[in-house]
Design a protein that fits this description.
Layout: E1 2-7, H1 13-21, E2 25-30, E3 35-37, E4 42-44, H2 47-54, E5 59-60, H3 68-77, E6 81-85, H4 93-96, E7 103-107, H5 119-125, E8 130-137, E9 147-154, H6 161-185, H7 217-226, E10 234-237, E11 240-251, E12 257-261, E13 264-268, E14 273-282, E15 288-289, H8 290-297, E16 303-304
Helix pairs in contact: 1-6, 5-7
Length: 308
Amino acid sequence: MNLVFLGTPQFAVPSLKALLEAGHRVLAVYTQPDRPKGRAHEPAQSPVKQEALAHGLEVRQPERIRRPEPVAELRDLNPDAMVVVGYGQIIPQSIIDIPRLGIVNVHGSLLPKYRGAAPIQWAIANGETHTGVTTMMIDAGLDTGAMLLKWSTEIGQEETAVELGERLSVAGAKLLLETLAGLEADTMRPEPQENSQATLAPILKKEDGRIDWTLAACEILNRMRGFTPWPGAYTFFRGQRLYIWRARETAAGLPSILVQHGKTAVAGCGGGTGLELVEVQLEGRKRMPAAAFLNGAAIAEQEVLTDC
C-alpha cells in the first residue's frame, strides 16, 4: 500500500518501523519542525525524523500542515491511505479528503476516554488501572473519529508514563497493521464514538507538575508516575523548586509539612497520609537520594513545603 506517515514522538517510531517491515511503501514522512533543545538550544530532530532518515525516507516539516503548499504536495503524492501517530497538528478536511482509504490514527487510550495530546500521562495521573490503544479514522475533530480496532492492558501499580508508553507504542504498531489490512480488504466496520463518555487529556503544562499537598499520597504518587519525565512532580523548598522523582506512601501528619526522621523525611499529604521521599532534585542540580539531600539541608523541626 502507498502511504504517507505523519508523526513526531518516540511513541510513533514503532508504527513507522512496522509499516516498512511489512512492505508498505512510505511515500513521505511528515513531522514537526526541528525545535531548540537543551541548554545550548540547538535544533533537535524529532524521533520520527531520525528514524525516517535512517531508512532513507523523504522527510517534510511544514510549520502548518493546513497551508496550501503542504495540501498540494499531499494531493500530488496521491497515497492510498495516510497514518497519523502523535503528529501534533489537527488534520484539516482538505487533507482528510485526499486518500481513497482515509486517514488512520493510532491513539494511546481506549477511546472515547482521554481524547487529546497526553492520554497516557493523564490516564496514570488520574489513577486508571486499565488503558490501551485505539485505531480510528481521522475526522476534523479532536480524536472524535470512528473507531476501528482496540487493544487493552492493565497499568502496572508502579508503571510510569515512559514505561507504559513503550508498551502501548509496540501494541499500537501491531494494531495499525491489522487495521490497514482490514481497510484494504474492506472488512473494517468503523464504530462511532459515544461522545457522552468522552474525557479529555490536554497537552501537559509546567504547572501540572506542581504538587497539591492536600491530595492523598496515592493521588500524588499517580501524578508523579504520570508526569515522568515532564513536567515532573515538584514543590518548593525554601524558595527553590524541588522535584520529587521517587517516594513511597506512609502515614504522616499535616499536609505540606516535611518532617525528618533520622536519614528519612516524610511530607504530609491529605487524609492523614504521607510520602517518604526516596529520590529528589533541587532545580539546577542532579538527582540524589533523599538521604544525601537531608545531609545538606538541615531540615527544621516543621519545614513547610510551599507552592511557589
